[in-house]
Specification:
Helix content: 55-70%
Structural class: mainly alpha
Low-confidence stretches: none
Largest sheet: none
Number of helices: 3
Order of helices and strands: HHH
Length: 98
């Protein structure tokens, strides 16, 4: 009698093991999908491709604008200071003294 009970329980356990493997696979796939989604979402949120953060002009471009007369010397100095992150207390640099 004990043998029949033992055989029945091992058959049930074998059937449940198959279902457990299926559920383990589903849970593992959900975890991998979630991690992948978080990875790409974080990369998108932390990217520097936001146009609102861009300055708009490079230092070379404002030099060309000053040389062509599109910008006065005062405007050039203000734009240069803004680009270089200066506080505007002094606009003269050793390069400008030449």
């Amino acid at each position: 009698m004990e043998t029949a009970w033992f055989n029945a329980s091992t058959t049930i356990a074998a059937d449940n093991a198959g279902a457990a493997y299926v559920w383990f696979g589903i849970i593992l796939a959900l975890i991998v999908a979630g991690v992948t989604m978080v990875y790409f979402l974080r990369a998108k949120l932390l990217s520097d491709s936001d146009p609102s953060n861009s300055v708009g002009f490079t230092l070379g471009e404002i030099r060309e604008m000053r040389a062509s007369g599109q910008m006065s010397q005062t405007e050039y100095e203000a734009a240069r200071d803004m680009l270089l992150g200066r506080d505007g207390l002094t606009s003269e640099t050793p390069r400008d003294k030449k």
